[in-house]
């Protein structure tokens, strides 16, 4: 209910997902509104139910509202369904902070994870890179970054199908002497991880395909995400302007358009679906507020894959293995929540 | 001497600057090599001298080498010339960490500045944005960010000619509730600044022209810079690939090429010259290692403008004004150097 164009887009995407991926869908929200949207679609042979929720978290509500005030808001009710075993995953295009808070409050964290993280998939020139955290973990401790690395590695291996993902820690240079207080200690801890930790990487490595997972705190991750969005938009705005002022270039653009469209498809977020919410004891995928039905459909696919490929179970085992390999002084519970 | 193609490119750029901007040039470096390069150019009517320096700092030397070991390296000798009143500014395409270290060691900082910063000019859809620090100040205190804001504001006003530059603090969202420990305190301090502080800005604001100066610590600034470089390259690599695989699109590209070239010129770093090193008691401009002669020429223009427009004098007055307006508890000297 919380998306920019809810619930029309969500219902359309969910119906498409039910048809295409054969998943059973429970639409959570205002039963009248959702029902009216659902009537617009053919649903023969599909398993689609409506579960009423009386309230909605808006984009400007604080994440804590979902916990303290809005007990019957759709995002919280959706996670309740997972907790009660009626559903296996939640997909939301609503307020991402509230989705994260609701997921954590209702489902709790998986053992060994102090802070759930939001991961985003970014296209690179060869394939794609998973960047996390791009959620709200702004002041992290080194161990949190280690946990993000662990979760990102498992997700990339299990869901994105990379056999031995290369995991890098985002820094201001590749040399050992680089980094800040946070990354230096995280780098030290990550060196003893059993997965393929490749060390410090730079901002450019997100796009050149040299690494599969890029780990950073949520402040830096958000900056990266917004810089990427802003720069892409900026480049195309400037290019459009230059092309638009030249008649011959306009004709040229028309001829080259299929190439631009292919590029656009390649970097189109709706192909990926959404951003996995990792570290909660259940499955959640967070979509852009303005998601298209296609993005919703692909987000359902993502969430399904997380469940089928046992992402959380793998994470739990991996974290246990990491903790067992550490000296006693490194204790996940000593990291405070911010 | 430390640039990727030194000293040929530097000499060519310096000669062009002498001719175009009428500045007197002292070329600092290996007298034989520099002299051989200089002989390739017509220098009638220009004031160009060579000052010998026996050593060079390489790209992989540490910044401390310039201070402890290489006392006769070209970058240090160049700053010595400024200290001794023989020159008024230094332009370097060498190791930027070493340039910053040499500038700070030889010229010291201007009063009230704890840490010099490197500022970079990024094109936005309307004009340009100054982002600082993109240098090596990875672990900053809130007061350092205030000082960066002050310096960036003065540079933008005096050199880039914006009358009342809008200064923003880079954060993970615009709301007051956003930010990390560092930005929250810096935000509180910046609110009492006399210049036009507009509050938190996001990564996308670097490109949409909504703000003139974006302030961040050097870790985040470096990530922004490298993400921007990597993404721009990535976008054009992917576009080229899509165009290259379609004969019709190739023809279209040829027709649209002037538009692409105009765009390229607009975002071409060599038009800006270099990155001003702010906060040292003198003037320094740091260029890309692989700078073109044009970039060197424009960097000389930048350095000249800093001197002519009395950037440092304005900064000193501005900092004094800021400090006078603060309660006694806020003391610049309490900020430690990292």
Short description:
Chains A, B: Belongs to the PlsX family. 2 copies of one chain form a homodimer. With 338 residues, chain A is an alpha/beta fold.
Distance between the termini of chain A: 28 Å
- CATH class of the largest domain in chain A, please? Alpha Beta
Please count the helical segments of chain A.
12
**Major sheet of chain A: size, sense and barrel closure?**
8 strands, mixed
Give the oligomeric state: homodimer
CATH architecture descriptor of the largest domain in chain A? 3-Layer(aba) Sandwich
**Secondary-structure class of chain A:** alpha/beta
Tell me the Rg of chain A in angstroms.
21 Å
Percent strand of chain A equals 5-15%
Average pLDDT across residues of chain A?
92
Query: Largest interface here, residues on each chain?
Result: A-B, 67 and 67 residues
- The CATH superfamily label of the largest domain in chain A reads Isopropylmalate Dehydrogenase
- Stretches of chain A where pLDDT is under 50 for at least 5 consecutive residues are 329-338
Sheet with most strands: strand arrangement of chain A: 3-10-9-4-5-8-6-7
Number of self-contained structural domains of chain A:
2
The sequence of SSEs of chain A as H and E is: HEHEHHEHEEHEHEEHHHEEHH
* Global morphology of chain A: globular
Q: Please estimate the helix content of chain A.
A: 40-55%
Number of strands of chain A: 10
């Amino acid at each position: 209910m919380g998306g920019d164009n809810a619930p029309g887009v969500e219902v359309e995407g969910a119906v498409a997902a039910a048809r295409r991926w054969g998943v059973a869908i429970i639409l959570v929200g205002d039963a009248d509104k959702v029902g009216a949207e659902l009537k617009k679609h053919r649903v023969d042979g599909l398993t689609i139910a409506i579960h009423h929720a009386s309230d909605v978290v808006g984009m400007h509500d604080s994440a804590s509202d979902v916990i303290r005030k809005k007990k019957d808001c759709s995002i919280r009710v959706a996670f309740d369904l997972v907790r009660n075993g009626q559903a296996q995953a939640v997909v939301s295009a609503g307020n991402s902070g509230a989705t994260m808070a609701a997921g954590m409050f209702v489902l709790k964290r998986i053992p060994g994870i102090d802070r759930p993280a939001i991961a985003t998939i970014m296209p690179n020139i060869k394939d794609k890179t998973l960047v996390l955290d791009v959620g709200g973990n702004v002041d992290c401790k080194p161990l949190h970054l280690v946990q993000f690395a662990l979760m990102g590695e498992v997700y990339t291996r299990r869901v994105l199908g990379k056999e031995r993902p290369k995991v890098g820690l985002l820094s201001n240079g590749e040399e050992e002497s680089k980094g800040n207080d946070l990354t230096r200690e995280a780098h030290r801890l990550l060196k003893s991880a059993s997965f393929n930790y490749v060390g410090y990487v730079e901002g450019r490595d997100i796009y050149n395909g040299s690494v599969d997972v890029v780990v950073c705190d949520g402040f830096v991750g958000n900056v990266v995400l917004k810089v990427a969005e802003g720069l892409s938009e900026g480049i195309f705005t400037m290019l459009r302007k230059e092309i638009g002022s030249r008649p011959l270039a306009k004709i040229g653009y028309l001829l080259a358009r299929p190439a631009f469209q292919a590029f656009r498809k390649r970097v189109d977020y709706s192909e990926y679906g959404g951003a996995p919410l990792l570290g909660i004891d259940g499955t959640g995928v967070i979509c852009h507020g303005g998601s298209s039905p296609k993005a919703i459909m692909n987000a359902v696919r993502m969430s399904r894959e997380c469940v089928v490929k046992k992402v959380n179970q793998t994470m739990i085992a991996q974290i246990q293995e990491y903790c067992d390999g550490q000296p006693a002084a490194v204790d996940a519970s000593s990291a405070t929540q911010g």
